[in-house]
Amino acid sequence: MKTKYILAISGNDIFSGGGLYADLATYTTHHLHGFVAVTCLTAMTDKGFEVFATDSSVFSQQLKSLKDVPFSGIKLGLLPNVEIAELALAFVKEHADIPIVLDPVLVCKENHDVEVSVLRDELLKFLPYATIITPNLVEAELLSQKSIQTLEDMKAVAKELHELGAKNVVIKGGNRFSQTVAVDVFYDGQDFHVLENPVLNHNNIGAGCTFASSIASQLLLGHPVLEAVQFSKNFVYQAILHSDQYGVKQYYDKT
C-alpha cells in the first residue's frame, strides 16, 4: 500500500505525553508517515508550566520546507500566538482539499490562568477550512462566548460553532457532568450524537491530542467523520487505560 503522509502543526510537550509526541505516536499506530511543524517549546519554570513560541520566521521556514510533501491530512494543535496562527492558516488554505482537523487549544491544562483567548478571532478563521474541530468544554465556551453547564448547552454550542463555519464539531465534555462517564457531543449540521465511555482513574496527558490525531488519521484512511470520531473515542479510552506516569504507552489496535 502506498505510504500516506500526515502533518501535525503542534507544540512540544516537555513531558512527552501530549503535543507532537502524541500526534506522531498516533500516526505511527495508524501506519502513517507523520511530519511535524513545531509551534512552540514548553518547560517547567519557577512560574510553572510555560509555553515558548517558535520564532515566526523559523516556523515559516518549517512550512516552506514541507511545501512539496504530498500530505493527505493535517492536524492542528497549539498555536501559541497570532503570527504562528496566521502562517498556519495560510498553509491550511493551500491544502483545503484534504482532511483538516483543528484541536483549538486555548487553555493550557497545566495552568488554567494561562489563556490564549486573544487567539479566538484567529482560530475562528480556520473553521471554514476544518473538516472537524475538537474543542474541550473550556475551549468551546471561549470560541462561542457561551457558558456550558448541561448536555443541552453542549449541543447548543456545537450547533453555534457549526454555524460559525465548522463542518463538523465534537465537544469533549470529559467528566464535568459525571465522575463515572466521559461524555462528548458530535454534531454534523443535521444530527447530534452523544458518545460515552467510563471515566478512568489514569493519567490522561495527551488525550485530546491523541483524539484529534486519531480522527485525522481515520479520515485520511477514508473513514466517514462520525465513524472516525467513534473509533477515536474508543482509541483514546484504550490509550488512557494503558497510560503510565508521564504519558500514553504505545497502543496498537489488534482488531
Give an account of the 3D structure.
- The protein has eight helices and ten strands.
- The protein is of the alpha/beta class.
- The chain has one domain (5-241): 3-Layer(aba) Sandwich (UDP-N-acetylmuramoyl-L-alanine:D-glutamate ligase).
- It has a five-stranded parallel sheet, with helices on both faces.
Distance between the termini: 19 Å
* Rg (C-alpha, Å): 17 Å
Q: Count the domains.
A: 1
At the first level of CATH, what is the class? Alpha Beta
Total beta strand runs: 10
CATH topology: UDP-N-acetylmuramoyl-L-alanine:D-glutamate ligase
**Could you describe the largest sheet, including whether it forms a barrel?**
5 strands, parallel
Broad structural category: alpha/beta
In helices, the fraction of residues equals 25-40%
Distinct helical segment count: 8
Task: Briefly characterize the structure.
35% of the residues lie in helices and 21% in strands.
Describe the protein's topology.
Blueprint: E1 5-10, H1 19-29, E2 33-38, E3 40-45, E4 48-53, H2 56-65, E5 71-76, H3 82-93, E6 100-102, H4 120-124, E7 132-133, H5 137-144, H6 151-163, E8 169-172, E9 181-187, E10 192-198, H7 207-220, H8 225-241
Parallel strand pairs: 1-2, 1-5, 5-6, 6-7
Antiparallel strand pairs: 3-4, 8-9, 9-10
